[in-house]
Amino acid sequence: MQLFYNPKLDSSVSQFVFTPEESRHIVKVLRKKESDNLLITNGKGYIFEAKIMVADTKKCKAQIISSTKKHRKMYWFHLVVAPTKSNDRFEWFLEKATEIGVDEITPVICDRSERKIVKQERMEKVLQSAMKQSMQAYLPKLNPITTYSEFVEKEREGLLFIAHCEEDEKMELKRRVAPDKDVTILIGPEGDFSEKEINKAYEKGFLPVSLGQNRLRTETAAIVACTTVNLINNG
């Protein structure tokens, strides 16, 4: 059954109307009729089962018949990633990271960043689509783009890592991550972090990690990190 998204739903709502876009998709594309059931999430842990009352292409109305609250996992995973020069590649990363299981994403501008502007609304839609496709109840938190210096200056809790390409003593990420521990990982731009940025991260408690022997694109490195953290916690 297909999953829909409505952030305004909560346990107190009994009836609601889909947006015109979703109404048309439900009635015209999926060919749903009155009395058919649908699943909806509010992106905050709830999965609602609803029955269509009015199958209108502009105002599809539904009634909540049951709800289930899914508990969050025991850890919080935060990916801090420099936007890639190609929007398509960064959106691919957002989609796959959501499917695999990321809790928070912060786009960050670095010294060698080629892209310094991102479309927040567009990225939110990519995350929502990936959440629905993978049948998840929680929408990842997407922070506004920020500078690297602003990000690292703030105090962070949990395990802190930076993945860079400089020759340095590094331990593999899979040996650094511990189950049920909050994790924040910094992933740099195509040209990598600058030496100044790396040293600043060290000062703030970030530990260098390796994502493998091969040099990876930014979006690939982020997905490898996401997969590693997921496997350590769910393997």
UniProtKB/TrEMBL annotation:
Keywords on record: Cytoplasm, Methyltransferase, rRNA processing, S-adenosyl-L-methionine, Transferase
Keyword Transferase on entry: yes
Source taxon at top rank: Bacteria
Bilayer-crossing regions: none
Localization per record: Cytoplasm
GO molecular function (one): rRNA (uridine-N3-)-methyltransferase activity
Role: Specifically methylates the N3 position of the uracil ring of uridine 1498 (m3U1498) in 16S rRNA. Acts on the fully assembled 30S ribosomal subunit.
Protein name, per record: Ribosomal RNA small subunit methyltransferase E
Organism the protein comes from: Maribacter polysiphoniae
